């Protein structure tokens, strides 16, 4: 559903995260089992969606009825095989949105496997596999490659997510959440980066390499502020192209997402044990061991409908901040332009300089891009940057997969321990911020929280992804200077 589409009488109204109560998971009348938690309202089929829909997944493909989507798909495929797709942004959007929508739809049709990230994996690797076997039309490859690089869709997406996340985070929430929520987040990052540095050094993988190529993309809380911009940073620092790093980074993120879901299921099982190992181990769905936790850390309600002028203002704000970040990156080359954009957006937020309508405009633009264009981005990344041969070489490295698993374990355990020390419950703090930082964001958050039977913590997952993602990207920009 687009933001401008009115809701029908038969369509359930969204429930605001701050309205969700926090009873014990074991209660028979627990209303959170029936609640639909929304941070925004993307169309069905979007990998960036955090919306729980009761509509069968086969009813819509990228928001379109199957018949109409089939017509659009046939036109795009025919044009690629004829070699006549226009080499511009419209051609790039046509190919990536249509193919991404189809792959997300296929992935959502497969039960059980879809819960561990099949839709994301299909978008990330299937186009690259088709190219590897010379099945994908060359015209499509050329158009999408130019779309991602020369025409700048990669920067277009990443900057929209960064600016929307930072400026859109309520100033009061950023300040109030710090003492209680950011502490386990920073603790998990410190422990994970430090642990991977030591393990990488001991195993011969390389300490800094383990941090930047495994821990950092995993802990970014999603692809938009993780593997995708990090590949640009590393290419800028080391030379070469983003594609030289993208395969390893994306492989680490996707595999880590599977591990996160498995651990979340294990936490759910441990939470059902009659005897707790120690007080505060299981909050039965409550994140904090203090009263009024829902009010202290809650995301504000998103607008149900968007203003087209507001989206235009959001685009303008995002574009100008990117230009300013690029200028600062040239003047002070120690930090990547993305890091400067983070600092500029954070300064605007904390200084309270932006009027409310401009803040909402930037946030709405970022939400729109993130909710509908994630599949398109993944398909573009797969076509442009991922070499399946290089991915297989990475997986063949005997230390690669163990380091990924250890990264997730350190993240969740350290987050739980530090959270427990600041009056959080261990299991809930292990899940968010711990596991939520290490999954793929969006659909990854939904899968992790569902496996843990704690979907009502979605508001805290959104907070984790916003704060944690930009923090990891900033730290990574600094560490990349030592490569």
From TrEMBL:
> What spans are recorded as compositionally biased (Basic and acidic residues)?
16-29
Q: Which GO terms describe its cellular component?
A: membrane
- Pfam families for this protein: 2HCT
* Keyword Flavoprotein included in the entry's annotation: no
Q: Which InterPro entries match?
A: 2-OHcarboxylate_transport (IPR004679)
Give a yes or no for keyword Transmembrane in this entry: yes
Q: Which GO terms describe its molecular function?
A: organic anion transmembrane transporter activity
Q: Where is this region: Disordered?
A: 1-29
Keywords tagged on the record: Membrane, Transmembrane, Transmembrane helix
Mark the transmembrane ranges: 67-85, 92-110, 116-136, 148-169, 181-199, 211-229, 249-269, 308-329, 335-355, 367-388, 400-422, 463-482
**What name does UniProt use for this protein?**
2-hydroxycarboxylate transporter family protein
Source organism per UniProt: Corynebacterium hylobatis
